[in-house]
Amino acid sequence: MFRVVFSTALWRGVGGIALFVALWEAASLLKLPFLRFVPAPHLLFASVLETIQTPAYWTAVYISAKRVMIGYLIGVALGVPIGLAFGVSRAFKNVFFPVFETLRPIPPLAWVPLSILLWPTMEQTVISIIFLGSFFTVVINVLGGVETVDLRYVRAALSMGATRWQVFWRVVVPATSPSIFTGMAIAMGLTWEIVVAAEMVSSIGSGQTGLGAMMWQAYVGGVIPLIITAMVSIGLAGLLFSALIWQIGGFATRWRRLV
Fold it and tell me: What is the CATH number of domain 40-258?
């Protein structure tokens, strides 16, 4: 704990944020044209304090976080084994990878119209779009990790009598685990981007809630401080969730620090 508090990297990050806020304040005082609609930090801070004390704000945070976690966990639960299967089974990859590669470049939000038709509720539509964003990201990272496994380790294990199943669990999965957690962290950041856009689209005329819906309603009402509050909330949420995954990944792959 003390190491984190007194680390140089932490205070450099704090200094960078302070410098950004100071430049923003100076630009607002100078009334620069590109910030004419954006309130100064000291005015925005008061609005943020007022907003975060309302139940509606925390309800929106909870709803968005719940959607992210459901879609993300489903994406990870399916993406990791499929990525591993692509990497270890040539036959499986030859059959299904062309379909995967055809669907992967399609932006998640392009699935919105079809998802609305496929799923009976808007809640399921939003979660399905989040799932797609995390699923494709995890699969491609896991596959890349499997393909970089040193074949000398595999051959050494086979030469010592290990079965292919043992090689998979004792060699391939541990060697791929850094790529698995990297894909999970990247997917987490992506899901927060997707949930906001999905909620903004789904909130039009449907009374949806969440940070994205809050941002859209603030835009329609011209409440700029609320827009920025929602943006900062999304950034902080993505940062905290991604940091948690990096911490879990660092603990799970702590053997890498011994190499």
Answer: 1.10.3720.10
